[in-house]
Hints:
Layout: E1 5-8, E2 13-17, E3 21-27, E4 33-40, E5 93-96, E6 102-103, E7 107-114, E8 133-140, E9 145-154, E10 159-168, E11 174-186, E12 191-197, E13 207-210, E14 216-220, E15 229-237, E16 247-253, E17 258-264, E18 270-276, E19 283-285, E20 290-292, E21 295-301, H1 304-319, E22 333-335, H2 337-340, H3 346-359, E23 363-366, H4 388-391, H5 395-404, E24 408-413, E25 417-419, H6 423-427, E26 446-448, H7 454-470, E27 475-478, H8 500-518, E28 523-526, H9 536-539, E29 544-546, H10 553-563, E30 572-573, E31 576-577, H11 590-598, E32 603-605, H12 613-635, E33 637-640, E34 650-656, E35 662-669, E36 679-681, E37 690-694, E38 697-701, H13 702-707, E39 710-712, E40 721-731
Parallel strand pairs: 22-23, 22-32, 23-24, 24-27, 27-28, 28-29, 29-30, 31-32
Antiparallel strand pairs: 1-2, 2-3, 3-4, 5-6, 5-11, 7-8, 8-9, 9-10, 10-20, 10-21, 11-18, 11-19, 12-13, 12-15, 14-17, 15-16, 16-21, 17-18, 25-26, 33-34, 34-35, 35-40, 36-39, 37-38, 37-40
Helix pairs in contact: 7-8, 10-11, 11-12
The chain binds alpha-D-galactopyranose (GLA).
Amino acid sequence: xxxxxxxxxxxxxxxxxxxxxxxxxxxxxxxxxxxxxxxxxxxxxxxxxxxxxxxxxxxxxxxxxxxxxxxxxxxxxxxxxxxxxxxxxxxxxxxxxxxxxxxxxxxxxxxxxxxxxxxxxxxxxxxxxxxxxxxxxxxxxxxxxxxxxxxxxxxxxxxxxxxxxxxxxxxxxxxxxxxxxxxxxxxxxxxxxxxxxxxxxxxxxxxxxxxxxxxxxxxxxxxxxxxxxxxxxxxxxxxxxxxxxxxxxxxxxxxxxxxxxxxxxxxxxxxxxxxxxxxxxxxxxxxxxxxxxxxxxxxxxxxxxxxxxxxxxxxxxxxxxxxxxxxxxxxxxxxxxxxxxxxxxxxxxxxxxxxxxxxxxxxxxxxxxxxxxxxxxxxxxxxxxxxxxxxxxxxxxxxxxxxxxxxxxxxxxxxxxxxxxxxxxxxxxxxxxxxxxxxxxxxxxxxxxxxxxxxxxxxxxxxxxxxxxxxxxxxxxxxxxxxxxxxxxxxxxxxxxxxxxxxxxxxxxxxxxxxxxxxxxxxxxxxxxxxxxxxxxxxxxxxxxxxxxxxxxxxxxxxxxxxxxxxxxxxxxxxxxxxxxxxxxxxxxxxxxxxxxxxxxxxxxxxxxxxxxxxxxxxxxxxxxxxxxxxxxxxxxxxxxxxxxxxxxxxxxxxxxxxxxxxxxxxxxxxxxxxxxxxxxxxxxxxxxxxxxxxxxxxxxxxxxxxxxxxxxxxxxxxxxxxxxxxxxxxxxx
Length: 734
Ligand code: GLA
């Protein structure tokens, strides 16, 4: 039995232990599951002494407590608070019974400690061998309803993954109108909340707010996780920085509507809840049916944000992202979008491929415009049939010719969408989401397919499988270019329409599951107008996600900075594009564009015939460099050395090998100054007792590089950049 989960029978206390943290909860005498503590390791002390059972006016007591005014759920910290129980804070769970009565009252029944983590059916989740899992069964006896709370402990990553299974054990039909995945209650706290809002082209900015008595609500009800708010947040101490202070991460493995809410309560405790957004959600559970909530990944660091990010990076690299591509260097690709947009044929693509192959680029990706009748974004979506007339050849011929150049070949698809001007729409109008008889809400001239329908998914599976089998396709970019509005399904009765948002997401996962299982060797890249669905649910199926449609290197520094708080750099799709940049009009040096793209998956998004000879030579060198540094870029610990939202003068970040023998320090001068002060970059993750060289020269102690820093040569122009390659040459003997 693992030591990561223990149960004290006498005091009915559960303790979950990770490498640096303790999580404790207690079943109190009435069966209410109280939260006691989450934070830095506390070895042997039962933490029930922390609870002050006190009386607060205007906060009720559970029915079986009698007149004891000292037990009020309104102020006690809980594991899975319910609506209507006398707890007036944000709750996790609520259900409507047969008489229309709403709420829930959950009490402990039993628990089980498993040696392995069970698979979450129909939902992406963390995986791993021998991951101990605690399952606590709670029951609402008035409704014949069991709620199973799952806690899986990833000790090494300081992580606890939580999800909930709701089972209707009776005969009556129930309606679950709130089913969040986790609550984090703290008896005290003076916290900040760090979160990641944005928009198309400015994804995952970093904001920080003090958690006070007003509710802070981070959410999306766009049907996807969205550009506008990422399903990840950090609760931290006021003084937490990159290198010090406590930080608690909450990350939701889900790609649809979500809610994260934080608030200080009336006696200054702190509550954070997270899960599927209750807005528009009402799930019917007939007798015997169950509902599974997505997994929340909690992680803890007592050494600031860097350590918290490393926890998530390592966890997601090892226990979330799958496929043969997970640990491999991804092919350096050239994407046709910014090179040609819709204006291409097979010959033009082959010309791009030929020139790219001469530079050392390894894969051609044919973006939007190759199927149905699609020469702009008004038609064709839904018709997954190759437009041979436009290409001037079959897909097989095109892929073979690309392969003949020594390159791999990949394609773009957008399965979840449909244009009204398509054969699919003309044949199956009912395949779309639509709010009853109301007119459609259009976005980018397209409507959304009802992914909750099995026949829609079957059509997509079959038509896409045919395409993928018809040629040698080794990469697929899966796009999704609008938010959901008319969220109503023709396939479900009126009383089940509150399920459509969630069923849509489950439908997408189902199709992804089928396609990635049928085509296990294909490298999949997610996309949603850039980074509109950059979430862990997608990373379970896609090894990488296009980080943003904004390819301007200056803008990308911020986007990748924000994304890196939760997501590993080797999952961030990043390309070098042509200048002036197509999104911002800015011109930046090729070298800077490469340093920024190198932080992600690396590729190009340009027409090589527009490059000068000098730029072509530079690209060859960049490709050699990316190959050389791949182990560090892919497996190194990533450190944010500057905050680009605060430091407008320069940006720096670093990859350091876990063995501390190599590091790459990346530097970009954002704004040159007259008579500038010298910049010193303090490295992270080196060995204080070792000697290093920088770019093959000198001898610097690890302690010097980390405490005094690397001196950056004075630079005179905006956007000049440097890579410092730091290598250990010897250990210092004690
Ligand atoms: C979205 C993607 C782009 C490109 C276009 C094609 O905007 O984010 O990269 O694929 O669609 O229509």
